[in-house]
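Most newcomers find our protein records easier to grasp once they have seen one. Read left to right, the backbone structure tokens trace the chain's path through space. Nothing more is needed to start thinking about how sequence determines fold. An example says more than a description, so a record of this kind follows:
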Amino acid sequence: MRPRPRSVPGLNLRLLALLTGLLLAAAAPASAFCGYYVAKGGSDLFNKASKVVLARNLDRTVITMANDYRGDPSEFAIVIPTPSVLGRDQINVAEPALVDHLDAFTAPRLVEYFDEDPCLQRRFRALAMQSARVEDAEGAAARNKALGVTVEAEYTVGEYDIQILSAEQSGGLGTWLRENGYGVSEAADKVLGDYIAMGMKFFVAKVNLGEKARSGRSYLRPLQIAFESPDFMLPIRMGMLNADGQQELFVFTVTQGGRVETANYRTVKMPSGDELPVHVREKFGDVYTALFAEQVRREPGVAFLEYAWNMSWCDPCAADPLSRAELRTLGAWWVAPDVTPTPLPGTVPQPRPGTRIMPRPGPGPVDAFVTRLHLRYDATSHPHDLMFRLTDNAENFQTRYVIRHPWNGEATCPAADLYRQTLPHRMEQEAQRLASLTGWPIDGIRDQMSIPEKPATKWWNDIWQRAE
């Protein structure tokens, strides 16, 4: 039997907001966006960010949980309400790269176009690119019984020691958690009582330092749990009890179709499709964090939709689509395993010329629809647990912004003259859109843009439009 690490007082509890989903429907293609993908706004731009992936079909749910914890592993712990006692084979650990890939694939993106020579009479040309057990055994059973807490199951999974608890009353459970090193304040007892009344069990995990040392990894892997339940909710109130300010939550759902929305809070699409100044290309991370903060200021207490798309293709691709094996590891059990027959000459899928539209290789499309929701929350903005619902809306959506590089050639023709006259107005509109989306001062934006002066024209050029 493996020796049990002793309790570490005063653990800083890290709580992930998650539970389960009821998701199914069908997907439909949308018109292509194309463009030259140049930058993305992934979750790494945000502090205190947790990422939760829910793969759901019928009443089967697999949840993959990751967060940005980078402290002393002995200080890491989580407490998660679950609908039932989980068996050892219902718990797994995954590599962070799996969640990171999904994050990159669905991230808000920036694409660029290049204006053509206006004398060629074309509008644009798009260029191609592309937990440590915390108790001593002696006397623990008697103490647990006195507190009304039952340890239903115990497992070591990868670098985590895991216990599944049931409880009779919140005060006893709260005391048990505090005595066993989980930094739960007494304010948590009310919330714990609500979950106990709902019949919930409690999944608690800490890092097994010996297992972590043997693994040689410098990071903590995401935890995965699988269960069956009709509920579709994330108990974020637990995560707010020890929160230091606002928290960032990214919820990714993988379903058989139809986007997922929050049922007890409004789901709002992020602004998308706006043309922004060219200098945004080099600072898109700063732009998107400011842009998201401004939307939260205007629309507090909502969930923002950043991506909803069928996994069979992407346009433009911010990362390659997830493989069938990756989707199945995330819990999409209905996706057929990878089949790699020898392709016939000329049948290997290729990106559409001039784009990064990437059809999926293999035998036919993948029946998986991904939704990405982004929340910034605290006890004031989101006082209730998140409830979700599946919609029948399978329309593709992505948070996408555009930059257009002006033509700087020496073309001489009436169309070139008109182009140069209208360019200052277009660039001023781009500056004003960026100011509106981010809340940044317009004058500072203009200073970075070098907006040209509008060319002087004779008065008669404004009243006669000449044929070219």
Summary: The longest strand covers residues 49-57. The mean pLDDT is 80.
